[in-house]
Amino acid sequence: MAAYRRSQSGGRRILIVSYHRVVSDFTGELQRSIPGLLISQETFRRHLEQAHAAGFELASIGDAVDVMAGRRAAKKDLFVVTFDDGYRDVYRYAYPVLKQMGVPAITYLPTAFINTDKRFNHDRLFHLLRCVQERRFRPDYDTMPGPSVQLLGPILTGSKTVSAALDDFIGEHPTRVLTGIIDSLEQQLGGGADLVPEQGDVMNWDEVRTMARDGFEFGAHTLGHTVLTLEPTEVVEKEIVESKQTIEREVGIQVKDFAYCNGWYSDEMIRVLNQNGFRSGVTTEDLPNRVGGDPFALKRKVMWENFSLGLMGDYSSALTVCQFDDCFGVLGMSHPVLGHRPHILSPMNTGNVLVEELDAALAKATPVEVVDVTAPVIATEPRVAVAAPGAQVVVASNVALASEAAQPEELQ
Questions:
Q1: Could you read off the pLDDT of 121-173 as tens digits, one per residue?
Q2: Vertex 327, ends 18 and 97: CA angle to 5°?
Q3: Whole-model pTM?
Q4: End-to-end alpha-carbon separation of the chain, Å?
Q5: 354: which strand partners?
Q6: Which residues face 392 on adjacent strands?
Q7: Phi and psi at residue 343, to the nearest 5°
Q8: Are strands 38-40 and 21-23 parallel, antiparallel or unpaired?
Q9: What is the dihedral sign for C-alpha 235, 238, 244, 246?
Q10: What is the rounded CA–CA span in Å between residue 88 and residue 207?
Q11: 151 Cβ contact partners less than 8 Å away, ≥ 6 residues apart
Q12: Cα dihedral 42, 43, 44, 45 sign
């Protein structure tokens, strides 16, 4: 299977793996944190040892980009270690292992969180939702942002886990909706320090500089950990450019690489990265990287503790190698989520209708029906709506498009 993937990839596999938090006590941390973000220090070490034993060269992101571009010939398949979000756990538990083993790595930083006590929206929401569950609390949706029921409903009815519901929701709603829900839940739950998660703290600049002096790389990951496909162009430019400039100013290094929040990216984001001196952008698409492929759509395999647990609940070398060799992908047993998205044209004036960017071909779709509405509408499918003057949305009535049209509950 490895040989098959190698031939598919143009002669060399370029496996980029993504981690978030490396912790000392996985079982303890599992009780209070998003499970898919966690891996124990021991399992992380074993991953690196396993990759080396499997014949990979543990390489940098720059090496991967050079091999893909044909500027370097690789004697072995490449294995690239990346971290998203700049959690302090990486400094505490991953950095010593990487340094001891001589393994390069890159950490993507959301710079507005570095040197602060702030927690990420996904960690804050996870903690608040667990509080809602534990207290058997019933939220007052009338005082919350409209989409709140889409997040809380599946959790309270038991149809989704907190992690699954949160992952789906974050990919569909902009930052302002997430913060609105956080503020509402904190107020309804009575406030207090216990509503802010203790875990999930991020690095400070001194810790970043220490790692950088030892040769570890850092890339940009927006200012505020923002899913940019849901934001207007001016926000995209600010989040990308200022995050790059902040790291360069604070650490004294050149920032060339970017990680898309939630793994979602668009042609507009790639344009901004290109214009501002970046060399790569990484997604969370679990697919093979191909020699000659787009360096701004690099594929990554997101890893966590349970991806290496065997039938008996202990570490499995065989399963780990299967993950690295993408056995499940080759056999069609996994279903990667694509990260490329149409970009929402979202004006800074939030009273306007929000719509998705249309391709030239899709813009020709006819006939259409103009429907008056009395409140702003979010259209979640580019083939369903285009902007219309005033409080209107243009809805495609073409039969070929009707099956993909947004349902009433998806229009908030």
A1: 999 999 999 999 999 999 999 999 999 999 999 999 999 999 999 988 987 88
A2: 35
A3: 0.82
A4: 46
A5: 378
A6: 372
A7: -95, 130
A8: parallel
A9: negative
A10: 9
A11: 125, 129, 165, 166, 169, 181
A12: positive
- Retrieve residue 48's tokens: 């690196």
Q: How far apart are CA 181 and CA 189, in angstroms?
A: 12
Prior bond of 139 cis (ω within 30°): no
Which bin fits 10, alpha (ψ -120 to 50), beta or left (φ > 0)? left
How far, in Å, CA of 287 to CA of 364, rounded? 32
Residues with Cβ within 8 Å of residue 206, at least 6 apart in sequence:
none
The answer to whether the beta carbons of residues 72 and 55 sit under 8 Å apart is no
Distance CA 269, CA 266 (A): 5
Taking each helix axis from N to C end, the angle separating 148-156 and 121-135, rounded to the nearest 10 degrees, works out to 50
Greatest pairwise CA separation for the chain in angstroms: 64
Residues recorded for the chain: 412
pLDDT tens digits along 372-411: 333 443 444 433 333 333 333 333 333 233 233 333 333 2
CB neighbours (10 Å) of residue 197? 19
Q: Which helix (H) or strand (E) holds 385?
A: strand 385-387
Beta-carbon count within 10 A of 87 CB: 26
Please, what is the angle between helix 267-275 and helix 233-251, to 10°?
A: 40
**Which residues, 6+ apart, have CB-to-CB distance to 340 below 8 Å?**
264, 265, 266, 283, 297
